[in-house]
Amino acid sequence: MKYEQIAELLNGIAERFEWDKIMEGDKIIGLKQGKQNISLEPGGQFELSGAPLETLHQTYAEVNSHQYQVKAVAEEMGIGFLGMGFQPKWGIKDIPIMPNVRCVTIVELIYP
């Protein structure tokens, strides 16, 4: 996905499910709701950093809620998701780097 699609997805989640937008200049780079955050990572993936919870059952409910919210907005955009830790078809140079400072810095440090 290109940044513009990811921005549309994050904006949709924020508006529909009452998340606060995390902005860097005029670019959305994440979401915050209570003690939960959704962060945008260098290759366009985003991840949930959950709130500190007391039980595994609460964590399970939090993750399921996150997946429901992402899927609800993404399906309307014609986007599907896989829970993967890597991109099996692309090389590093083929992955679009997100425009926020943290992501650009990480990539410059790891792949000079």
Can I get a quick summary?
It is built from 3 helices and 4 strands; from the N terminus they run H-E-E-E-E-H-H. It is an alpha+beta fold and 112 residues long. Helix 1 (3-17) crosses helix 2.
Detailed description of the structure:
The chain is α+β, with helices and mostly antiparallel strands and 112 residues long. It has one domain (3-110). The chain contains 3 helices and 4 strands; from the N terminus they run αββββαα. The protein has helices spanning 3-17, 56-76, 101-110; strands spanning 20-24, 27-33, 36-40, 46-49. Helix 1 crosses helix 2 (56-76). The protein starts with a helix and ends with a helix. The mean pLDDT is 86.
Whole-number tally of structural domains: 1
Indicate the mean pLDDT.
86
- Give the percentage of residues in beta strands: 15-25%
Q: Walk across the major sheet and give the strand order.
A: 1-2-3-4
Name the helicity range. Answer: 40-55%
Distance between the termini: 24 Å
Order of helices and strands: HEEEEHH
Globular, elongated, flat, extended or rod-shaped: what is the shape?
Answer: globular
**How many extended strands?**
4
| SS class | alpha+beta
Count of discrete alpha- or pi-helical segments spanning 4 or more residues:
3
Return residue spans where pLDDT drops below 50 for at least 5 consecutive residues: none
Computed Rg: 15 Å
